[in-house]
Amino acid sequence: MEPIIKIVDLHKDFKQKDMDVHALKGVNLNIYKGDIYGIIGMSGAGKSTLVRCLNFLERPTGGSVFVDGRDLASLTEKQLREARKDIGMIFQHFNLLMQRNVVDNVCFPLEIAGMKKRDARKKAMEYLEIVGLSEKAKAYPAQLSGGQKQRVAIARVLASDPKILLCDEATSALDPQTTKSILQLLKEINQKYGITIVVITHEMAVVQEICSHVAIIDKGNLVEHGTVEEIFQAPKSREAKKLIYQGYEKVAEMKGKRCVRIVFHENSSFEPVIGNMVLAFKAPVNILYANTRDLDGVAKGEMILQLPEDLELGDKMITYLKNAKLSVEELEDYVG
Amino acid sequence: MWDEKVIQMIIEGIGETMYMTLVPTFLGYVLGMPLGILLTVTDKDGIRPNAGIYKVLDFLSNIFRSIPFLILLILLIPLTRMIVGKSYGSNAMIVPLTIAAAPYIARMVESSLKEVDHGVIEAAQSMGANTMTIVFKVLLMEARTSLITNATIVTATILGYSAMAGTVGADGLGAIAVRYGYNRYQPDIMIVTVILLVLLVQIMQGIGMMLSRHFDRRRTR
């Protein structure tokens, strides 16, 4: 069987002022019809560049990309625009038109294809139905939650009947619950319409949740690829091992010096705030002090938490706690 | 002194000022809008980078914007004579005002269009949109509130220019202020015209802000 996407010795260099950046250094990969192919790597590994080479939003500097047997580099501008209609793409930040309402956003690719407005609307409504947002047709993107925006983006992509769907960190801006529902939707789309899906992510959990195959990319090189099962049972490369074990790493001793004091006012006693946070970030916190009680079902009291060393992760946790309606204050020099 | 003649003159002055503001603003957009779009599209991060076109337009618009308006007006007198037939009066002022407005508007349009999120442009490209579609359906539509806000600023600036032109042969409120306030030293008439100029700017500002809010769909409710 001919692969639907065939990547041969793909190179991409960026010229920056004083140095050349080699974002991709000879990537080879075959993706077959009906696959959900995960491409996973740390940030800066080249995965976003790779996915942009699959629809030539970035032109590779070497090697070839064949989609449905056609070499994208051989196409004229016009043929390339036609070819892109078969390759849908969704993004981390949704990229909806903020000045158009939901149904008109879904109509946009149909307008580009030259469909009559009335037919486009009808078709758009059908796809909104599929993603479960038909009652939001007249709303504007600013009025929607992140998950709803991504659903609109998915409806918009489906409207042009693509053969391939590229997802560039499509769930990275969403909370764990919403991520799950969006991944579920992508899975349904794959099964119902036979659309081949390429998922770019830095989270192993996403790959585990929906992918049939996975490729691991590190510093512009594809270090390992195969079915998700194979890679999970016996990861060979160091990078694969690192990515797979990242979720389960035990921490013997917390070294971070950053501590926060959190105060519970209005949370339900039965809401496992800290436990959920640890699950969401897959990183432990250390409880240095706690004094909480249950007052008629409402949690009252305070805790002092030691945060992980990673600054960014610590910041995210603080935001998470604030969003969970706790008051959070950073403590200087609590541990030395 | 506040006889019918003066009141008549001031009313006519308002009309002339409006004429010298709105017509050059409109004509300025006819010229400046395409220039602003070209500047955005051909810039190195634009959707069709073209260093040659960008550099020429960038240079021209900078040159014209760096000439003070009064000097530009005088420099353009031969051209004004050629087009209008004379170099004084409201009609003649349309020429230098338009030429001063166009590069300024081009820059304003460019800055509005560059505010549009690159991701949205990328999304349109991924759907197979061509350059025209991206310009008209993405850039101009997504930037519309900023374009309207900037148009208000442009209009107020042109109104200021038209008043300046009052010193060298234009009509309108500016000319009245100069004639009575400076030449004849009758500050009362000058103060009235200044108040009227301020009012005109306020009204245009108000209308602009209202329109901009009306067309903004980014609010959460």
Secondary structure topology:
The complex is a heterodimer of chains A (336) and B (221).
Chain A: E1 5-15, E2 20-31, E3 36-40, H1 47-53, E4 62-67, E5 70-71, H2 77-84, E6 87-91, H3 102-112, H4 117-130, H5 146-158, E7 164-168, H6 176-193, E8 196-201, H7 204-210, E9 213-218, E10 221-227, H8 228-233, H9 238-245, E11 259-264, H10 273-281, E12 286-295, E13 298-306, H11 311-323, E14 327-331
Parallel strand pairs in A: 3-8, 3-9, 6-7, 7-8
Antiparallel strand pairs in A: 1-2, 1-4, 4-5, 9-10, 11-13, 11-14, 12-13
Chain B: H1 4-42, H2 51-66, H3 69-75, H4 77-84, H5 90-114, H6 118-126, H7 131-142, H8 144-164, H9 173-183, H10 187-214
Helix pairs in contact in B: 1-2, 1-5, 1-8, 1-9, 2-5, 4-5, 5-8, 8-10, 9-10
Describe this structure in words.
The complex is a heterodimer of chains A (336) and B (221). Chain A is an alpha/beta fold. Chain A has two domains: 5-245, P-loop containing nucleotide triphosphate hydrolases (Rossmann fold); 259-331, 2-Layer Sandwich (Alpha-Beta Plaits). Helices cover 34% and strands 28% of the residues of chain A. Chain A has a six-stranded mixed beta sheet, with helices on both faces. In chain A, strands 2-1-4-5 form a four-stranded antiparallel beta sheet, with helices on one face. Chain A has a four-stranded antiparallel beta sheet with strand order 12-13-11-14, with helices on one face. In chain A, a hairpin with a 2-residue loop joins strand 12 and strand 13 (298-306). In chain A, helix 3 packs across helix 4 and helix 3 (102-112) packs parallel to helix 5. The longest helix of chain A has 18 residues, at 176-193. Chain A is globular, with a radius of gyration of 23 Å. Chain B has a domain at 19-169: MetI-like fold. Chain B has helices spanning 4-42, 51-66, 69-75, 77-84, 90-114, 118-126, 131-142, 144-164, 173-183, 187-214. Chain B starts with a helix and ends in a 7-residue tail after the last helix. By secondary structure, chain B is mostly helical. At the A-B interface, helix 2, strand 6 and helix 3 of A face helix 6 and helix 7 of B.
